[in-house]
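User: Can you help me understand a structure? I only have the sequence.
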Amino acid sequence: MQRYILQRILLLIPVMLGVTFLSFMVMRLVPGDVVLLRMAHEPDPVSRTVRF
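Assistant: Let's start by predicting it. Here is the structure, written out as tokens:
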């Protein structure tokens, strides 16, 4: 049982690195900037602060 748990923990390391790498690459390859896309819907920055 201890060997199984150790194997699972050791397999967790490359899985987490792979998920991190893939999510980073997806965010880098998506065109545009998330902040700029959200700001494009708000023409006036004053109306954004008043709404909050």
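Now, to help you interpret it: The mean pLDDT is 82. DSSP finds three helices and no strands in the chain. Let me know which part you'd like to focus on.
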